[in-house]
Specification:
7-stranded parallel β-sheet
């Protein structure tokens, strides 16, 4: 039997994949998915929430399986016209994607919080599991690089994660607080799952919100993380590159060190089984299984393994 209530912390494509697997197993009342909003930015006057959108499109079945982000079968006519009209349109937004951002911005300007807007939008797409922003206050991930100070999207999209990262700040975090749904989940869940998301760009912004790290550190239920680093690099994205540039070991052991004190069990991919002892030496119990999620069956299988680990620890 699965644990009573689970809180999943997620960002990016890897996080959305595992969240989908968990949502296929757990009913809505037993799963809360908290999503990073440090990537949020304004484009063309619209509030864009890339990680919330990736999660929403994934759980609604709208996502593009070729990219992991955006809407399947989308067109880009609006972006093309914006470019022709002289707009700085380096951030790819599809036409259906634009509709999401237009509606989100309308609702935010009407006085609704990001949490309330997310409930409205996900409900309209038939999603029953709660997808919750980490905070209703703005927190922005800012990277200091050899190319200057860059927002997350400038670094990741405009510069294709090329500049060397020297430090990362989460601007506004000190004035933020967990969203109501996040705060409630931190107090009521039986287990916490760190999805295989970038530790610095997806998970750390969530942990930077005051009170979150302390609450997770004090949590008495099982805390399981899935390593986003497999075979010495990220499954996708710049997580491995950033870890190395910031002086961390680019391996599951490096991930274990990032989550020391916040995690009880770290799930390693089978090809990293030899790192189990080193992970254990960090003070985190290793568990080995296949973590590469190429199909929905893979996502469900990994989610089942994570929930088995949680149940065993209870």
């Amino acid at each position: 039997m699965a644990p009573s209530k689970v809180l999943a912390l997620a960002g990016g494509v890897g996080g959305a994949k595992l969240a989908l697997g968990l949502a296929r197993i757990l009913p809505p009342e037993r799963l809360t998915i908290v999503v990073n909003t440090g990537d949020d930015e304004e484009f063309h006057g619209l509030h864009v929430s890339p990680d919330l959108d990736t999660m929403t499109y994934t759980l609604s079945g709208w996502y593009n399986p070729e990219t992991g982000w955006g809407v399947a079968g989308d067109s880009f006519e609006t972006l093309a016209v914006l470019k022709r009209l002289g707009a700085d349109a380096w951030f790819n937004l599809g036409d259906r994607d634009f509709a999401m951002h237009i509606r989100r911005t309308e609702l935010l300007r009407s006085g609704m919080t990001l949490s309330q807007v997310t409930v409205e939008l996900t409900g309209r797409l038939g999603i029953e599991h709660p997808i919750v922003p980490m905070s209703d206050q703005p927190v922005r991930t800012v990277l200091e690089t050899d190319a200057g100070t860059l927002s997350m999207q400038e670094y990741f999209v405009k510069h294709r994660a090329g500049p060397e990262v020297r430090s990362i700040r989460y601007v506004g975090a000190e004035d933020a607080k967990p969203s109501p749904g996040f705060a409630e989940a931190l107090e009521s869940v039986d287990a916490i799952v760190f999805c295989p998301s970038n530790p610095h760009l997806s998970v750390a912004p969530i942990l930077a919100v005051p009170g979150v790290s302390d609450a997770i550190a004090a949590h008495t239920g099982c805390r399981v993380a899935v390593s986003p680093i497999v075979g010495g690099d990220a499954v996708r994205g710049p997580a491995g590159k950033i870890m190395g540039e910031l002086g961390a070991e680019v391996s599951a052991v490096g991930v274990a060190r990032e989550y020391r004190g916040l995690c009880d069990v770290l799930v390693l991919d089978t090809q990293d089984a030899a790192l189990s002892d080193a992970v254990a030496a960090v003070g985190i119990t290793p568990a080995v299984t296949g973590t590469i999620m190429q199909t929905d069956e893979d996502k469900i299988a990994l989610a089942q393994r994570v929930l088995q680990l949680v149940k065993t620890a209870e």
